[in-house]
Design goal:
single chain; about 180 residues; alpha/beta; Double Stranded RNA Binding Domain; disordered C terminus
């Protein structure tokens, strides 16, 4: 009897400690500021498009088929995936690769006002390669790309949840400045 009470008290203390340190179960997250969203230039039947739609719907956002029905328009400005060689073995064959994905997006309302300024998300994962186990390494690469895609959707949702009107007067197209900043001599 005392052992049961002791276990209950111990479990209660463990819960209190978790709550005190800020632990929170991962849920659907913060609500997004829009009820209806149109996805512009997002390949909706791709793995990424399906995941994005599923996560948005889980947060209470309706994906509309026509731009005039949307409160906000999600613009995919770019999605680049690449694979680069990081190192070579003694025979001159690739030993390690870097998988990279650069995704750029913005959100505007019906009047063209910027709600979320152009954002760039840069993801990268390193993967080793062994020509003796090509199939296993190919599977590992596919898993890493899937992990990058999940990470991308999560980061997008965090940025969308923080979306506020950036400029109510700006209706001109916004260009993403990617040029390096130089100081003139």
């Amino acid at each position: 009897m005392y052992a049961t009470r002791f276990k209950l008290i111990l479990a209660g203390l463990a819960c209190l400690m978790l709550l005190a340190c800020g632990f929170k179960l991962r849920g659907t997250g913060a609500a997004l500021p829009w009820q209806n969203l149109y996805l512009d230039k997002v390949p909706v039947n791709s793995s990424f498009g399906l995941k994005l739609k599923r996560y948005l719907r889980a947060r209470g956002v309706k994906i509309v088929e026509h731009v005039q029905d949307a409160e906000a328009i999600f613009h995919q400005l770019g999605d680049q995936q690449s694979k680069e060689i990081l190192s070579f073995n003694t025979r001159g064959l690739a030993r390690e690769y870097r998988l990279r994905r650069i995704y750029t997006m913005s959100i505007r309302d019906q009047q063209g006002r910027i709600l979320v300024a152009p954002n760039r998300i840069n993801l990268k994962r390193d993967v080793s390669f062994n020509d003796a186990s090509v199939l296993a390494k190919g599977h590992e690469e596919a898993l890493l790309r899937n992990d990058m895609e999940n990470d991308l959707v999560e980061q997008l949702l965090h940025r969308l949840a923080a979306g506020r009107t950036v400029s109510t007067a700006s209706t001109a197209p916004h260009k993403l400045n990617t040029a390096p900043k130089h100081k003139e001599p």
